[in-house]
Structure formats: structure tokens, C-alpha cells
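Example (one chain per record):
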Amino acid sequence: MADDGGLAKFQKRMRAIPVAARAAVQPALAKGAYEIADIIEGLAPEDTGDLKNSVAVTLGGHSTPPYSQPGGAEVVPENAAAITVGSSDVRYPHLVEYGTSDTEAQPFFWPGYRLGRKRALNRIKLAIGKAIREAR
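Predicted structure:
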């Protein structure tokens, strides 16, 4: 058998990377989504608590709650997470976030997302990097 200079070993490792990365990213993705959701809940106005209680995290392959903002009931793709606010009882998160002609805006969703995004992305990148290093 001819020596391929390690090409077969390299190709095997390259084929293993996507599988390992997908498997490793799930826990990091979920943890980041739940941390961002906690920040959003902390920033949400506390009138009755319904708005805070309607914050939901939906992981890949599942459907978001009906009437949730942004998007309504949609299936989240694999290797993704969706953070939504709203339910069939709480249909006004966008009015609170952006305000109306009668009420002042009380942003909570996008500021919460921006506060937690960097930490979540770093966690995901570390998990992917670790999976790539360990893929053999």
C-alpha cells in the first residue's frame, strides 16, 4: 500500500468536524439562549408579570408559541434557538417594546438580546473550537 503522506487521516478528521461541531454546539446554544431570556425577563416591565412570564426559549426542531413576537408560531431550524415574548394571552409585547402614539416605548427585548449576545456567541465559538480540536 502506498503512503499517502497522512492524507487519509486528514480527510477522516475533516469529515468528523461538522458532526462533532453540531453535537457540541447544542448545549452551548441552549445555555446562551436561556441566559439571554433571563436578561430579557429582568428588563421587562413588571405591570402584572404576564409579559415576563411569556418569555420563552425554543430550541431547534420545535415550534415557537402561537402569537409570540417576533414571528408567531414557526419551527426553529436545527442548530438554532429562538427567544420569543408573547402568548395567546399576552399579545402586546411589540407595543411595549416600541411604544404607541399614547404610550412611551419601554424597550426590554432588544436591549436584553444585545446585553447577552456577546457572551452567548463566545460560548458557542469555544464549544465549536473544542469540538474541532477533539475531532479525530
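Caption: Strands lie at 56-59, 81-84.
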